[in-house]
Amino acid sequence: MKSRNNKKEIEHEWLKMSSGKFHVARGYNKRTNTTQVITSWRSTEDPGPGLYSLQIDSIEKQYVLKWNKSVQYWTSGSWDGQNHIFALVPEMRLNYIYNFSYVDNDNERYFTYSLYNPEIISRLVIDVSGQIKQLSWLDASQQWNLFRSQPRKFCEVYANCGTFGVCRENRLPFCSCITAFEPTSQHDWDLSSYSGGCMRKNNFSRNEKEEKPGFILSYVPSRFLSSSEIKTLLPDDESACRSFCMLDCSCYAYTFVSKQCHYWKYEGLSNVSLMLSDSNSQTFAINIKVSLSDTPKNASKNNTKVLVAGIISGFFSLVFLCSIGVMCYRRVKRQALEWLSLRSLVGKETRVIIIINMPLALYPMRGACGKTKSH
């Protein structure tokens, strides 16, 4: 669908420019106090409503991105009417293609844009990645050209890798699972939909009499501390916090901050963005409960055991093969000696051929006259 320089075609709407990847929305209606939104697909193959949505702020002159229609993770910044841009979207200054405008009256508030060249084909989508993407069609290369995306980095999208997933900008795919976890749905991950997160490879025992669980270390931004619960009536040391989480079936992770024991239930971890390292002072360590066999120390032991078992098995296999080889060599050598001994006993004019363990009738013998006889 073409975006044309005709206000009647585009005002009051977030246009669905191609492929139905988002729903049409009309901004904010002040009379009814309702907001319509653009929602991402669930995956690249599933057009059902996804977790990410774009909408006009009902209070400020800005639009925002939300996760699960509840957590705001990006804003455009306030509208600058003089320069016709949003404060936190400097790319809008490159307005040789798009003519942006923001309308705010007694009835409604909405943002729209048109094209200076009505022949250009454009689309604005909210991708399954949770990013806004504005693209234009290039006839010369026959492909879509990305004009801008917000947030600029994939890993800036809230909870984009799901529960127990980590995001890294320096590798593809951006999402991966932490140690001892695997994708909840490999099919969804193959479609670049990571919000389903990861699950444990091995469930830990909930029976205290059996082997106790262990913990693996990860890191989270400090803003996620609010999604934890505080365990009171515990001594102000980390060992008591660790023991509590180890024995409590509802505890999935814990951290000890400012002499307080914070712990997470599964629901609290569902929107936490994990990190593999303490990259800055705005993060804190989090200990995630896993099966003891999946902790790095025990995993190393298991790998060592497998390696030792492989070496021992290989050694005995080699000894067995060498033994077979020696036995065969000795047998051949014995037969050769028997042959030489028999030949030395026979006269020079008589030629006798004897093959050990083979019927003599199969081999001809030559008599003194040089005639061959068959037995």
UniProtKB/TrEMBL annotation:
UniProt keyword terms in alphabetical order: Disulfide bond, Membrane, Signal, Transmembrane, Transmembrane helix
Signal peptide extent: none
Keyword Protein biosynthesis: no
GO biological process per UniProt: recognition of pollen
Spans traversing the lipid bilayer: 306-329
InterPro entries xref list: Pan_app (IPR003609), S_locus_glycoprot_dom (IPR000858)
Residues in Apple domain copies: 198-288
Keyword Transmembrane helix among UniProt keywords: yes
Record protein name field: S-locus glycoprotein domain-containing protein
